[in-house]
Design brief:
Order of helices and strands: HEHEHEEHEHEE
Pfam family, one: DUF5131
Strand content: 15-25%
Organism: hydrothermal vent metagenome
Distance between the termini: 27 Å
Radius of gyration: 17 Å
InterPro entries: DUF5131
Protein name: Bacteriophage protein gp37
Number of strands: 7
Largest sheet: 5 strands, parallel
Shape: globular
Helix content: 25-40%
Number of helices: 5
Oligomer: single chain
């Protein structure tokens, strides 16, 4: 995975990717970035159109980067999403207004930090409040019981079920 809006990626390259996405409306594209301010600038000023097959998102791993959501919210897109993964601390009662989809997951790997169910609860509560689709991807290397094991062994059941909600394609929203 790479970040299309990384500072080392030229506007010319981003524009060429945008053109390919425009020419292939039968595919859906999910563009995830840690640089939503650049994404906002590009989509608002340089993109020829808001594409209904392009979903735009940002990563939020903790409250220190919560301001990324404001840039995402201002970005014209058919679907706006947030990947709260790896969720390494509470993000509080985050404002999900105009956000269509939230993906939540714990960290995996040998140096993974545990995820707390209360952090997931905060996001899930806000998803219900703002009518945002909720997708729980995984516990990661640390289970609900705070035991470290493989992410497969920890699974993806949250509050007794798997959460695979997806946003409905509502057409273009600004």
């Amino acid at each position: 995975m790479s970040d299309l809006f990384h500072e080392s990626v030229s506007d010319k390259f981003i524009f060429s990717v945008w053109q390919v996405m425009q020419k292939t409306p039968h595919h859906n594209y999910q563009i995830l970035t840690k640089r939503p301010e650049r994404m906002l600038q590009f989509v608002s000023q340089k993109a020829m159109a808001v594409l209904p097959n392009v979903w735009l998102g940002t990563s939020i791993e903790n409250a220190d980067v919560i301001d990324r959501i404001d840039y995402l919210r201002k970005t014209p897109a058919s679907i706006r999403f947030i990947s709260f993964e790896p969720l390494i601390s509470s993000v509080g009662l985050v404002n999900l207004k105009s956000i269509h989809w939230a993906i939540v997951g714990g960290e995996s790997g040998s140096k993974a930090r545990p995820i707390k169910e209360s952090w997931i609860d905060e996001i899930h509560t806000q998803c219900k409040k703002y009518n945002t689709a909720f997708f729980f991807k995984q516990w990661g290397s640390w289970g609900k019981d705070n035991q470290k094991r493989s992410k497969k062994a920890n699974g993806r059941v949250y509050r007794g079920k798997t959460w695979d909600e997806m946003p409905s394609v509502r057409g273009i929203t600004v």
